[in-house]
Amino acid sequence: MVAVTGAEIRRLYPEYAEDLHRVRAEQREFLAANGKGFTAQLDDIEAEITYLLLRARRPELVVELGTLHGWSTTWILRALRDNGTGMLRSHDIAERVRETVPAELRGNWEFRPGDARETMPELPERTEYLFIDADHGARFARWYVRALLEPCSWPMNVSVHDVFHWRFAKPLSEGRVVLDWLDTRRQPWFTAARAKARGEFDALCALRAELGFTEDIKASKANPMLYFALS
Fold this sequence. Notes:
- By secondary structure, the chain is an alpha/beta fold.
- It contains 9 helices and 7 strands; from the N terminus they run αααβαβαβαβαβαβαβ.
- The protein has a single domain (6-230), classed as 3-Layer(aba) Sandwich (Rossmann fold).
- The chain is 43% helix and 14% strand.
- Strands 3-2-1-4-5-7-6 form a 7-stranded mixed β-sheet, with helices on one face.
- Helix 7 (138-149) links the parallel strand 4 (129-132) and strand 5.
- The longest helix is centred in the N-terminal third of the chain and has 18 residues, at 17-34.
- The radius of gyration is 16 Å and the shape is globular.
């Protein structure tokens, strides 16, 4: 699996710009339709990067840990729809996502309620993209590193949300556990988080402006997601 880099993301933006404009409009309408009680977890750039990586890597199976109200879920499902292939299997204790995901996106989606540590004791074979935005504590991170990442013997992309709200991941946090594990493997990773990688963030903002992505969907610009690829 090819490592995720800023150069790749900057190449993918213009390649999929037309589709991304359409999906952004769909997501903006989806957010407005669900009202003030709906929480959109992902910021714009990290949501767009997720979409772009899914379009480029074309996974057949995506596993999502943590759905909340379905913001990340719908971004993923729209990428799979636009690829014309792929299945999303989502896990969460909360079940509101059952009510929010539009009917037209449900054909390649499976939701499994409950604690992923119980509903998914091991990673489904040949999972090609693992999206994690669930419990952000160190204990949960140690579980999925041990149970899901370490046994993985095939190429897989991984996204972990809420790692870089600050320049460094907090001690005893999920992000610290994952970063330490990646460091022991000398595994490269990527982020466009403004707090950690201001140069990457600014370069993407400039490119997005050139491509016409000027209107925010979500006001936050933290984009704290961590991306890496296992091979």
